[in-house]
Protein: TetR/AcrR family transcriptional regulator
Amino acid sequence: MDAETMNATDEYGIPIIPGPSDSAQRKRQAIIDAALAEFLTEGYSAASMDAITQRSGVSKATIYKHFGNKERLFLAVVGGVLPQTYAGLQCCGSTIAQAPDLRAALISFTTDWTRLVLRPDIMSLRRLVIGEIDRFPQLGQLWYRVTYDMNNGPLTEAFTELDARGTLEVPDPALAVQQLVAATLGVLQLVHTFSTDTEVDEAELSRVITSGVDLFLARYATA
Amino acid sequence: MDAETMNATDEYGIPIIPGPSDSAQRKRQAIIDAALAEFLTEGYSAASMDAITQRSGVSKATIYKHFGNKERLFLAVVGGVLPQTYAGLQCCGSTIAQAPDLRAALISFTTDWTRLVLRPDIMSLRRLVIGEIDRFPQLGQLWYRVTYDMNNGPLTEAFTELDARGTLEVPDPALAVQQLVAATLGVLQLVHTFSTDTEVDEAELSRVITSGVDLFLARYATA
DNA sequence: GTCTATACATCGATAGAC
DNA sequence: GTCTATCGATGTATAGAC
Structure:
C-alpha cells in the first residue's frame, strides 16, 4: 500500500480503504468489530490499539497494515457503520403522501424512527460522535446527513405535496418537518442522551409520539 | 487533607473540595480555569495533567494536593462550572403566568434560553458531558437537572395556572413544556450539536422560535 | 500478509526538599 | 503548601523474520 492510497479520502473525508483481495477480509472484519466495540466503550482517546489487537485476535502490525493509524481506523469504522445502520428506514417518506389516514401514517413513521434512534447501540454511537466532533468534524457532518437529511428530505416532499393537495397547509415544509421530529423523537432522545440506564417505556413512547403528532396536526392540518 | 475529606462527595457524586484558607485560592482558580480549557479542547482522556500544569502556571504536585487525581479534578471543574453558567435564567418562569401578552412572553423567554444554550462555550461543554457519560454518569444527571428541570419546573407551574385560568387548555403541562422547548430551542440545538462552525443566524433564530411558539399555541391556546 | 519483539514518547501519580 | 525530579505503566507505531 503506497502513500497515496493510504491517504485517500472520499467527499466527507472518510478514509477509503482499498478493496478485497482474499480471505484477509475476515481479519479486516474482525478488526472492525473489535475496534467499534472498543471505541464505543472507551471513546477515541482512551481506546487503545493494544486492546483492539486483543479483541480482534490478530496482531497489532496487521491492524496498522490495513488501516494505517488510529485516526484512520476510527474514521473508517464509525463512518462505515453509520450509513449501514440507517439503511432500513430511508424509503418510508413517500408513503406518507398517499396514506389514507395521515395521522396514523405519521404516528407509525415517527414511532419506527424513534425506536431505531433510541436503540442503546445507536445512542452510544451518537454520544461518541458528538464527543469527538472537535477532533473529527467530518463525522458530525456525516451523522447529520445520514440521520436527518435522509428522512427529512422525503418527508419535506410529502408535506409539499399534501399542501398542494389541500390536506395540509404548510408554508415552510422543511421547518415543519424539523418541528414534527423535534416534538416526537426529539423529546425522548433528549432524555436518553443524558441517561444511559433509562429504559424505553412503551407506554410513554406511544403517549409522547401521539401527542407530538397531534401538536403538529393542530397547527398544519386544514379544517 | 485526610483520606476522608479527599473522597467526600455531594448527593450527585460531585467531589466536595474543602473551602478556602488563604491566597492559595488564586492558585486553585488558576488550576480550574486551565483544566476547563484543556478538557474542553481535548476531552477527558486526551487531556493531560502536564498540559494543565503548564496552562495554570502552578506545579503538578500542587494540582494533586488540591484535587487528588484527574477524575476528581474533572468532576469538580465541570460540575462546578455548570450551575454557575445557568444561574442567570432560572427566575423567569413565574413571569410567564402574569404576562399580559402570552405569545410575546413565550417568544421572549425561549429566545433568551436559546441564545444561552447556543453559546459556543456551552455547546462545547455539552458535547464534553455527552461524550463522557459512560465514564461520568453523574454529570449527565447533573446537566439534565440544571439545564431542564430548573426551567421546566417553573414553566410547568405557569402552564398549570394558565390552564386553571382558562387562557390555555393543557391536559399534560409537563409534556407541553417539553414540546415547546423541543419545537423552539431543540430545533436549533440539533444543528449546532453536530456542527462547530455554524454561526447563530439572528433571522433564522427569530423565524424558528416564532414558528415554534405558534405551533405550541395552535394546539394549547383556547379559542 | 502476518507475526513477535521492541523503540520511543507520554501518561498519571508520587517522593522528598524547602 | 509548593516546588523539582522522577518512577512505573501504558500509549502509538514500526523493524525484521517468515
User: Anything to note?
Assistant: The domain at 3-83 of chain A is CATH 1.10.10.60 (Arc Repressor Mutant, subunit A). Residues 48-50, 60-61, 64, 69-70 of chain A lie near DNA strand D (CB under 10 Å from a C1').
